[in-house]
Amino acid sequence: MKLRTCAICGVVDIPRGIDWPHWLSGCPVHLSCVENEGKEIKRHRAKCLTPYFREIISGNKTFEIRFNDRGYKEGDEITLLEFTGIELTGNEATFKIGYLTNFEQKAGHVVFSLLRISNE
Asked: For residue 41, what are the CA distances in angstroms to 38, 56, 75, 103?
């Protein structure tokens, strides 16, 4: 299946699960990007333990659960810094925050999808 790049946010996505009617029309723009276009986007940096970082990089883990002390919101960018538990490794990866919810999460926590940015 061919990857597409959103013309607004630069996220590379497989057309499953992301704005299906929009992707089926052949237009590579996320509906949430159109709604958020022109709004200020925050850029977050956060440590990520090595086992989870590797799963994210491999594509097996496509979400993060975080304490929302930074005011995460859809459309923000997050750079995950690989952390061994003792030190940073120097490896990092930047993602766009996709769908975000606090449904069934611990108090103050959110879960959000990680969308690959094409210029990594």
From this structure: 9, 22, 6, 23
